[in-house]
Design goal:
Blueprint (H helix, E strand, L loop, with lengths): L1 H44 L3 H15 E2 L6 E4 L3 E3 L6 E8 L6 E6 L8 E3 L6 E2 L11 E4 L6
Parallel strand pairs: 2-8
Antiparallel strand pairs: 1-7, 2-4, 3-4, 4-5, 5-6
Length: about 150
């Protein structure tokens, strides 16, 4: 008797599922489209680490000038300070693979607008030039020896 009831329940469930699929078929496509839209919006609001490194590198190229052209920018890992990031965020950057051309950037919403600190022997000085781009500049992830 129980086996018969289970079979009936399964058959009813399959029929109801098929009816729902037929009735909601077009709505399913809408849900898929909306899901794709949500993914695109999230990708814009929360860029990947590589996109963040590109933004940081562009900011460095547009705000620093030195005796030689910038060929390589190494961007370190994004660090959060304080409890749950309440102390702010920062990132270290090295220009042209030279240890003395390092700087620490304080980030505001993943943009280095909060200030910076540079190594005292740094060859590059602050000079804002918004017309520059990353053409000819290699952007890498900087993996420091101690982290």
């Amino acid at each position: 008797m129980k086996l018969l009831n289970k079979k009936k329940n399964v058959i009813v469930l399959v029929i109801v599922s098929l009816i729902m699929i037929v009735l909601l078929g077009e709505d399913q496509l809408t849900i898929v489209k909306e899901t794709e839209l949500v993914r695109e919006v999230l990708a814009q609001k929360f860029p990947s680490e590589a996109e963040k490194r590109q933004r940081i590198a562009l900011w460095v190229v547009q705000h620093f000038e030195g005796p030689e052209p910038i060929k390589t920018i190494e961007v370190g890992k994004f660090e959060s300070y304080g409890f749950l990031g309440t102390g702010g965020r920062g990132v270290s950057v090295r220009i042209n693979k030279k240890e003395y051309n390092t700087m620490s950037l304080q980030l505001v919403k993943d943009s280095p607008n909060g200030g910076f600190g540079i190594h005292k022997a740094n060859e590059f000085h602050f000079e804002k030039q918004n017309d520059k781009n990353l053409k000819g500049v290699e952007v890498k992830l900087w993996r420091s020896d101690n982290g």
